[in-house]
Structures are given as structure tokens and as C-alpha cells.
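Quick one: C-alpha cells for this chain, please?
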Amino acid sequence: MKLRQLTYILLLALAIMALPQKSRAQEPLFPDVVDVEEVDSVIVPADSATHDIPYATFVDSVMKEDAAKPTAPAIKKPFIPDPKRALWLAAVLPGAGQIYNRKYWKLPIFYGGFLGCTYAFMWNQQMYRDYSQAYLDIMDDDPNTSSYLDMLPPRYDITGREERFKTIFKNRKNYYRRYRDLSAFAFVGVYLLSIVDAYVDAQLSVFDISPDLSMHLEPAVIPQQGLQRNTTAYGLGCSINF
């Protein structure tokens, strides 16, 4: 009988000891901590002033810590031009392909070439017209047509030397006509070069250039096959990394 009572008392003591542990496990670990995302929907309890850290102060400190955290900088994607677009832009408007490729330093080169070719074309064209008219006037027999005298020094007399000056005016006319045509071809050449440059520049924008630019020299043994026996030659081998 005493053994049974003792067993009941022991079981009762174990049950009493287990009850506080269960209640503590059900209690939240940090009753005062509230999720920051639910701040607007949480009502501050009336007895929050009794806590060591006020609820509003805790929320403000958490929000300040989140705002003080540095944000990761946005990764800017490198600009990769489209070769076809650069080609068509340069074909429609000279220099537009270089602007699209962001190679602005090339613009003075091409525009300087266009202006130089245009000036050469206009100057040679004007000289060609003057010498052509002078050649026509000196070839006819009309004394009223004497524009060729404007091509000579003042009060310069060519009496008796007309045939010589006819040849000179003809050669000068052909000379300026030739360089006028060359100026036009040069203008077209600069235009085509700007198109090719824009396309190649855009095409090579993704070309990987290794930073390891080096050259190595080392002795080399070169086997050679002769008519009678095999021989060995010694030389110097060169390898280039790029």
C-alpha cells in the first residue's frame, strides 16, 4: 500500500514539474519584438511603457538600421554596338556611324576629309572653267573674245606666240579637269572609308584582347631528313602571346 502511494506521489510530482516547462515553451522568446513590415497594422499595447525599451523607439531604431545599410550598386551593362545599324547609319549620314559607336574623336578626321575634298573639287572646277574659256577664246578668230588675257600678267604681249599659248591653255585645262575628277573620287573614297570604319569598329567591339602580350625566346632542336642520313639542326624558337 505504501509502495502504491509512493508511486502516485512520484507521478504527481513529475506532472507538476512538467507543467511550467510546457508553459514556458509556449511563450514567445521575444514578446516585445514585432516584425517591421507589420508596424502599421500593430496596435501598441498600453503597458509598453513598462518595458525597458519602448516599442516606438525599437521600431525607429530598426527602420534606421535598414535605411543605413548600403545598397548594392547597379551593374551597368557595357555598350555593344550593332554592326549592321552602324553600317546603315554611316551610309545614310556620314559620321553617324562613328557617333553611334561612341568614337567621337574620329569625327574631325572624316569631316576634315570631306571639307578638304570639297574645297579641292570646287577650286579645280573653277580653274578648269577659266582655262577652258581661255582656250576657246584663243582658238577662235574673234578679237572681241579675249578672256585669255586675264590669265596672263598685265600688259603681257603674246603676239607671234599664239600657237605656244594655245598648247599651254589646253594642257592647263586638262590638268585641272584631271585633278577635279580626282577630288571627286577622293570624296567618294572618304565616304566609303567612313562606312567601312563604322562597320569594322562595331564588329571588333566584342573582340577579346588578352592583357598578356609577351614574347618568349628559347632554343629549339629541329630534326632534318637528308638524302643519306638524318641530321639535327639547332636554332632559336620564338613564341608570341596576344
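Strands lie at 214-225, 230-241.
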